[in-house]
C-alpha cells in the first residue's frame, strides 16, 4: 500500500530525523572515544607503561636532578629523587601524583609491608589493604620490569587505582636481578638512642630529609636538631634519604631528630585526608595512624622511648565540632603511642591546635601529649608560648618552638629552605607511662556520661552492654547534684570525649559500698 498526503510526509520526516540521530550518535561516540584517548597520554619507563591525565607534566629526574618530588601537585616523576632535592619547606597534603623508580634498593626504592607486587610477567595491580591507617599512597612493585610505582592520592584513591590498572609491559621490560629489596632497619640502628633526646638549642625542619653530605656541611650551622617526616597520608615530599642507615649516621654525628608524622588533618580543613567529627571514628583514626607511625619509626630504626610528633596543621578552632574531632584524634594518638612504648608529641599552630590542647590540659577529658611543638613565627629563639599556652603546661623540657619559616639558609656551601626551631627537650621521660588498667563491666541500659562526678551537663553516651572503666570516684546522686551517695566510674564513652564519668547505678553489679567488675574485682579509686 502506498501512502499519500500528510501521513507519508510525517513518516518521511521521522525517517530523516532517525538517520540524522544515528549519524549524530555515531559521531558523538567517535568524538567521545577520541576525547577519552586525548584526555590521557602514555608514560613508559623501563618497559613499563601507564596512562595518565594528559595535563600532567612528566619529569625525568635523571635529566632534571634536584627536582623536588612533590605529591601535593599532579605530576609524573621518572627515576630516583636526588639526594638533595630543592624543596620548599613545610609542604603538606597529597593529591594524585606518580613516581616510578628502578626497583634496585637504592634509598627508599624497596618493598615494604604495604607494597603490592605484580605477578611474574605482568604489570597487574590487585588492590589489597594491609594496614588500618589510610596511607594516602599505593605502592606497586613490578619485578618483571624492575620498577616500583608510588601512586599518591588525596580524595581520589579510585583515580590512582585507575591509573595503575592501565599498566602494561613491552618487549623492553627486564626483570631485576635477585630477590626484591626489602625495607628493614639495619643492625647499626641498635645503637640509636631515643629521639630527640636531651637538647636545648636551635634546630630546623625541611620538607625532605637532607642528604648526609648536606648534614655534614651544615655542621657549620648553629643547628643541631632536624625535623624529619617519617610518614603519614598528608606527607607531601618524597624522602629518598630517610633510611635506617641515614638515621644511624646523622645521630652518630651529633644530630637530634624530631620524628614527624603528617597524618589526617582537621575536619574543617581543605586537605584530602581529614579527621572525622564523629568521636569514635576520630579515635579509631588516631589509633590506626599511631600504629602506622610506630611501624614507620621502627623501619628507620627509631627505638621505643622516642617522641613521635603528629603534624596537625592550623585550623579554625572557633568550629567546636572541628576542635572536638582533633582532640579525640590526638587523645587516641597519645594513648596508642604509649601502649606501643613511644612518647607522644603534637605539632600545630599556637593559635589553634596548641590553644585547644592547653584548654584541656587539666580537665582529664583527653589524654595529653608528652611534648608540644608550636608554630608561632615571632623570630624569638625560645620556648615562650605567650598567651597561647600557659607556662605551667608542658614545663619540664617538653617544648619545641617553630619561630620562623620558609627561609633559604646556606651553610658549608649548601643551601636548604628551612623552618627554624628552638628546642628544650629531655629524654628524662623516655619511658611512657603505662596505659591505665581496664576493668570490664556490664551496663544494663544506655547511660549518660559527664565530665566529672559532680557535673550535671551531659557530654556523651555509653551504650548498654559490656564496657570498660578505669577507676571510681564518689559522686552525686543521679537526680540531685547536692547529695553524694554512690560511685561514678571513669570511662571512654561510645559518643563524646574520652575520660568521662558514668554513674555506677547503670552497672549490673551495682552497690553503694563498692563497685566491682565482671570478675568481682573491686574497681580502684581514681
Q: Count of DSSP E strands?
A: 23
Report the span from N to C terminus.
100 Å
Q: How much strand content do the residues show?
A: 25-35%
> Residue share in helices?
10-25%
Largest sheet: 8 strands, mixed, barrel
H/E element sequence: HEEEEEEEEHEEHEHEHEHEHEEEEEEEEE
Globally, the shape reads: globular
Mean pLDDT: 87
Q: Structural class, from secondary structure content?
A: alpha/beta
Computed over alpha carbons, the radius of gyration is 29 Å
Widest sheet, order of strands = 10-11-12-13-14-15-16-17
Q: What is the number of helical segments per DSSP (H or I, 4+ residues)? A: 7
Given as residue ranges, the uncertain stretches (5+ residues, pLDDT < 50) are 1-37
Structure in a nutshell:
By secondary structure, this protein is of the alpha/beta class. The protein has helices at residues 6-38, 157-165, 212-217, 244-252, 279-299, 320-339, 350-359; strands at residues 40-45, 48-53, 58-60, 76-78, 97-102, 116-117, 137-142, 147-152, 168-169, 199-205, 225-231, 256-261, 307-311, 343-349, 371-375, 398-411, 414-425, 439-443, 447-450, 458-462, 465-477, 480-491, 500-503.
